[in-house]
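User: Thanks for the earlier help. One more: LADA_0E02410g1_1. Can you show the sequence and predicted structure together?

Assistant: Of course, both are below.
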Amino acid sequence: MGLLSIIKKQKLKDRECRCLVLGLDNSGKSTVVDWILATYKNRPRQSITPTVGFQIHTVPFRGHSVQLWDVGGQSTLRPYWDNYFDKTDVLLWVVDAAAIARLEESMGELTTILRNRDRLGYNCRIVVLLNKKDLAAELPTVLERLQRDLVREWRLENVPIEVRASNALDGEGLATLLPLVVWGREEPVEGQPPAAT
């Protein structure tokens, strides 16, 4: 293989992003993925059923190829989550904001994953998505508590965690999710391709 082939392969690799979508069962992971597919692949919205195992979807976004790994969140599947960690650029952790009773369980699972950072990778960015914000009566309280707990737990570990609220049914709060996944912020960095898809 010549040097030119190696350079071309590396450029393609640099434009790929692997996003692992995890969270407890019924948090809305597949609904978030479905909104992304409907928005960026012009596909009609689908009827959502619980994910058994995993599903992989590839979405073109501003010159990048984003792989979304939607993995089931049932308690029987959680022991297998770490099989999906390799080469993950972004962990999208989805929380059901309306299920306050499960917030502790959700944060416990996320903490277990983050304690295993060498397996997940130290360059992996973390985005916590409080989904179903339209159903959460105490959303500001939950958001504040979640941010406070995450900062307290992980500030010494230097783990950058972005927390945001969304409603995956109508897409509220998701418009800037893919830029955040690809670039680590809502706008491209200098030298990135223009906004046209």
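User: Great, one quick takeaway?

Assistant: The two ends are 32 Å apart (CA to CA).
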